[in-house]
Amino acid sequence: MIDYDADDDGLIEIRYLEQLDAMRHDLDGAGIHEELVDVEIYRSAYPRAEPDMGCPFGICAGYELMADLDFMARDSYASGSVNRKSTGGVGWLPIGIGEERFSARFNGNGYTITNLYISRDGLGDTGSAGLFGATSELSEISNVRLLDVDVSGNRSVGGLVGFSGGTIRAAYVSGTLSGILRVGGLVGGNFGEIMDSSANVTVSGEDEIGGLSGSSVGRVADSYAMGEVSGQRSVGGLLGISSDSGMIVGSYFTGSVTGIEELGGLAGWNHGEIIGSYSSGTVSGRPGESSQDAGGLAGVNHGSIISSYSVAQVNGVDRIGGLVGDNEGTIISSYATGNVSGHTHVGGLTGSNIGMISAVYASGNVSGEAAVGGLSGNNWYRNNWYNGGAIITSYAIGRVTGEHLFRREDIQAIAGFVGANEGGGRIIDSYWDSQRSGQRRGVDVGSASGVTGGTTPQMQRPTGYTGIYSAWNVDIDNADGDFDPTTGQDDLWDFGNPRQYPVLRVDFDGDGTASWEEFGDQRGN
Question: I want to staple 31 with a disulfide (CB 3.0 to 4.6 A). Which of 53, 161, 401, 525 is the partner?
Answer without folding.
Answer: 53
